[in-house]
């Protein structure tokens, strides 16, 4: 008798975990099975909203100091050599010629812009 009771309790909890419940109709004469998930309204899952990226400015000011220096050129060259991994804004600034990739030519152009011999795609304000 004890094993039958344990089996019934385990079976009931298994059905409860599966979301199936036994409900008695109002007259309580015959049980019927229903799916609890169907009877309960479900909330909509949260939606993912992407964060808009800031504008990509190709100024050559890699360290965002407000002015072009030899350090900007050096940091750009470190990106070319894969010694540093640029952030989104650093990559935009390091792509001085707006070619879509950071190359040694960008580093050279930034250095020449420091010497006032050349300029980047977008000058500093």
Q: What's the quick description here?
A:
40% of the residues lie in helices and 6% in strands. It is mostly helical.
Count the DSSP helices.
Answer: 5
User: Would you tell me which CATH topology of the domain at 55-125 applies?
Assistant: Type 1 dockerin domain
The secondary-structure class comes to: mainly alpha
Terminal residue distance: 87 Å
What is the H/E string?
HEEHHHH
How is the main sheet built?
Answer: 2 strands, antiparallel
Helix fraction by DSSP (H/I, runs of at least 4): 40-55%
Task: Give the CATH level 1 class of the domain at 55-125.
Answer: Mainly Alpha
Uncertain parts: none
Q: Shape from CA axes?
A: elongated
CATH H-level superfamily of the domain at 55-125: Dockerin domain
> How many beta strands in the DSSP annotation?
2
Structural Rg: 33 Å
Assembly type of the shown chains? Answer: single chain
Strand ordering within the main sheet: 1-2
Mean pLDDT: 80
What is the beta-strand fraction?
A: 5-15%
